[in-house]
């Protein structure tokens, strides 16, 4: 009898605990409905217009903050004077139309929205050669918080002109610039600010041929007319060529040639070693010339075999 009562008590306790856990478990359908209701309230019921800039006070511009990080220096083309870099810009601004009370939506603090459904600042790379390609794998939705703050981070591959000074080659140091700004909105409508760049290189990967020495930024005003001024955020990228590779490839062979050529010159004309040494040293000073002319390794090897 006692065992039967004990079994009944245990069974009842387990049943009550199971019901409590079931009731406490979050309902995914309800959460989905809550977020769906919030999307409807923010965009459909309010007739949200993506073409209207969210300025509350017409006397004050909308503040848009830009954080620019650099993932990798992809390439520096010495012939064309171009720098290709992988960047991850992050934009933040406030849209008063997208505020809500979290307690009205089960304490929902933030949602993710497609950029096509929002007003987006048209911040672009001013000096990009061709269209800058966005990395779709790292182009997430815009995060919207309950206080109306929006954050958008995306991947970007930019190709910008870079004036190279090759006088000190292969120990040259060059500075390239990446210029950001709004194409259509002047300062009286958008106040573009650049956040601190101390963390811009937190995820930077080293380049095998170039060393990144400095990454700084400054804001410049571009005066279009007496009444229109645009802000340009200029990113300065200072890189130094890693000269050890070129030292072994060019400087060392040149030093050997400086020693070999006088020796060949002072050998007697009738000496067989003069002709042999000259033929053997010929590929030594021809190889750097082929590489400087952009000839591939296969072509260089074939030329050396023919010689």
Concise account of the structure shown:
With 307 residues, this protein is of the alpha+beta class. The chain is built from 5 helices and 12 strands. Strands 1, 2, 3, 5, 6, 7, 8 and 10 form an 8-stranded mixed sheet that branches.
Keywords for this structure?
307 residues; alpha+beta; 32% strand
Describe, in plain words, how this protein is organized in 3D.
- The protein has 307 residues and is an alpha+beta fold.
- The protein is built from 5 helices and 12 strands.
- It has helices at 2-24, 28-44, 243-266, 272-292, 297-306; strands at residues 62-77, 82-94, 110-113, 123-125, 133-135, 142-145, 149-153, 155-161, 173-182, 190-194, 210-223, 229-241.
- Strands 1, 2, 3, 5, 6, 7, 8 and 10 form an 8-stranded mixed beta sheet that branches. Strands 4-9-12-11 form a 4-stranded antiparallel beta sheet, with no helix packed on it.
- β6 (142-145) and β7 (149-153) form a beta hairpin.
- The longest helix has 24 residues, at 243-266.
- The protein is elongated and about 100 Å long.
């Amino acid at each position: 009898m006692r065992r039967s009562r004990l079994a009944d008590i245990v069974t009842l306790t387990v049943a009550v605990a199971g019901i409590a856990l079931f009731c406490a478990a979050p309902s995914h359908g309800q959460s989905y409905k809550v977020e769906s209701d919030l999307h409807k309230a923010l965009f459909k019921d309010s007739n949200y217009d993506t073409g209207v800039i969210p300025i509350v006070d017409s006397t004050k511009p909308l503040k848009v903050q830009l954080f620019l990080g650099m993932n990798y220096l992809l390439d520096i083309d010495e012939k064309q004077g171009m720098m290709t870099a992988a960047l991850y810009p992050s934009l933040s601004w406030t849209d008063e139309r997208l505020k809500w009370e979290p307690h009205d939506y089960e304490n929902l603090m933030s949602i993710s929205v497609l950029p096509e459904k929002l007003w987006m600042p048209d911040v672009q790379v001013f000096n990009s050669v061709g269209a800058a390609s966005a990395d779709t794998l790292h182009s997430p939705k815009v995060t919207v918080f309950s206080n109306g703050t929006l954050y958008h981070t995306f991947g970007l591959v930019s190709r910008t002109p870079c004036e190279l000074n090759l006088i000190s080659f292969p120990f040259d140091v060059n500075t390239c610039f990446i210029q950001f700004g709004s194409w259509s909105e002047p300062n009286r409508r958008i106040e573009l600010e650049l956040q601190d760049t101390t963390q811009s290189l937190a995820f930077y990967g080293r380049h095998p041929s170039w060393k990144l020495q400095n990454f700084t930024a400054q804001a410049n005003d571009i005066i279009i007319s007496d009444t229109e001024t645009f802000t340009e955020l200029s990113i300065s990228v200072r890189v130094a060529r890693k000269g050890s590779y070129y030292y072994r490839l060019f400087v060392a062979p040149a030093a050997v040639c400086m020693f070999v050529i006088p020796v060949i010159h002072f050998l007697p004309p009738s000496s067989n070693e003069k002709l042999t040494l000259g033929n053997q040293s010929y590929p030594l000073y021809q190889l750097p010339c082929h590489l400087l002319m952009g000839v591939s390794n296969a072509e260089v090897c074939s030329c050396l075999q023919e010689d």
